[in-house]
Specification:
CATH class of the largest domain: Alpha Beta
Strand order of the largest sheet: 30-29-28-18-17-16-32-31
Mean pLDDT: 90
CATH superfamily of the largest domain: Aldolase class I
CATH topology of the largest domain: TIM Barrel
Largest sheet: 8 strands, parallel
Oligomer: single chain
Structural class: alpha+beta
Strand content: 25-35%
Number of strands: 45
Shape: globular
CATH architecture of the largest domain: Alpha-Beta Barrel
Number of domains: 4
Amino acid sequence: METKQSHITLELVSMTTAEAVDLVIWGPYFTKINKIIGETAGVVRGENFALGIQSLNIKTLGGYPWNESDRMPEFDIFRQGNDQNMHPETDGSVLYRIEAAKPTGQGSSLQAYCRNRFKERIVEDFDHDRLIAPAYDDGGVTGSKIAIFGCPVDLSLETIGMIELTEGLPHPLIDGKWAKTSAQANAAYLITAFTEETVDHAIALTKKAGLKYLYHYGKTFENWGHFDLYKGEFPNGIEGLKKCVEKAEAQGIKMGTHCLSNFISPNDPYVTPIPDLRLAKVGSSVITGDLDATATEIPIESPDFFNQMKNNHLKTVMIGDELIRYSSVSKETPWRLMDCQRGAFGTFVSQHKAGTIISKLLDHGYKVFLTEADLTIEMSRKLAELYNETGLRQISFDGLEGNRSTGLGTYGESLMPYTWFNELSADLKDHLIIDASRTTHFFWHIYTRMNWGEPWYAGFRESQTEYRFNNQAYFKRNFMPGMLGWFRMTSETTIEDIEWMLAKSAGYEAGYALVADMESIAQNGFSEKILQQIGDWEQLRLSNSFNDGQKLKMRNNSKEFSIQRVGEGSWNWSEVFSYKFVHTQKFRQPGEPLFSTFNLDNPCREQIMQFMITASNCDIHLVSLEIDNYKTIQLPVALKAGQILRYTGSVEVELYSSTGQLQETLPVDPKDFLLREGAHSIQFDCVFDKAEKESEVKFEVRLTGEIEVVRHNGS
């Protein structure tokens, strides 16, 4: 047997110098350990052998100090199409980071470093060319610690778990099992607004959907910073929320909520009436003249930190206990802040002497302030106190990148959840789900999963679709549970849209969050069916009931699938062949046909054609279908804009409102809609009630493929 050499570079970096130490590994069967690169988890894998690096404390950063700010470069895996092409020049995306592991021409590089932070530095970050990174005493490079391990590929995750326990790293659990290996780590959950009065209904909806996690997404807090509960939803404060949690727990439901990390709203006590000195600052100067209480121009010694406008959303400075907003900086000396609003955000207008320090506060596009490290720690403890007192067991740390305001880079991003986690009770740590929209090498140990993909930017199937699905390869190679992000159910969401998402969830073995307010659920006429389908798909997914071939098919974004319950613990699973057409109003010479001809293929057995006709933006009547140029079917029904005519193979065609409310039925003969296997043509026509060129009707035909029986594992 030939033994081959694999070349690994291990880089240990202290402050601004980097020394590479060649680590040569000998072993059979592999030439390079870079078949799979876990860039965040810090593990590289060949055919049989894995080598990993783990930072053993929060100040030891996975990666290399590409930037003085310790912000890790990110790369666009989708644009480059190659998960091994990682270069800092692609910094600026929101996707993946060059961290603890990366491929090289010779094999793989495992990287970690620690920075001496005893002195204040000026860095680039937050779209500022000059930003003060305050001095921070964490012991410096002394105490920095890493673990290097090698093991068979299939023991990689188990080995990291052993390192966590041995070295005292965070090791959160779900029902007493390590979250990274728990089947519940990527459980789907319902996001909805509820109050002390409506919590029972929210719990009932969660149970009806077969889910075990309910996530509050109303106005949870009066403010960001102190995390005071919003009286409009929790009038009894901590006790009120605690009772909500206890009600849910009694019915097997765990509760959680959303957190915008270290964002501080201007109405928070950290800002008003006396601002906290630990609010993050871009930088400081001094005023060059005395200020009375009426001055609207402020003379400053240097404009350097005040005239950076790319990320300057609140335009706020601090002098003593007063906050002041300004519109601009003078274009020439003597430098002045112009058009100043004194006593901003409810602070007190004061007089200030020449030579007094004036600081530009760092802010964020959400119109919030940010924190220095000590204030991040204090806020984290306040948030942990809320969880300990109420029993909440799920959290999403949104906006963790805001914690780079500490001047600690990715270290700062981990600081808030790390402090929060360490302050939690042992009971909470025994069942806890922590997610975020991003991660870092050290944060990997703390959080359960990364769950990002937002529903606000396009339709149900279109919003960040490519990002959601392409994320799954990143999750898999970094030992992260699969998650697809958030999907929003409205009053007009269809069963077909929901099943499209559920099939993708099953195919990728990935959870998701369903955002649905109670009003939309009540208004949607398909809600009962939708909630039932969510529960059925979820129990089949979590029990690993679909085989590998089915999962592979369901990962195809262009395909649709459906399940139908046929008995206790048994479902029919099939691909659905969906043909979507649009019929537009035509304006032609007299006698010329106005119908549209659509072609489709029935891929398998003879079956009844199912269809949906939607009057998109117009009123229509006298719908007719002619199948294969010989069978004409008249549907004497009128549809108003937004209404949907559905046929599912029964003896009736059903007319629904845009929100799924049944309004009328029309008898039909199912035999009229029989399609043999093979190619077919359908001529579609209708009468438009108004002569408008943009009038259109959507016509969708749905045919069922071969049926396979899926049985619940354990049934």
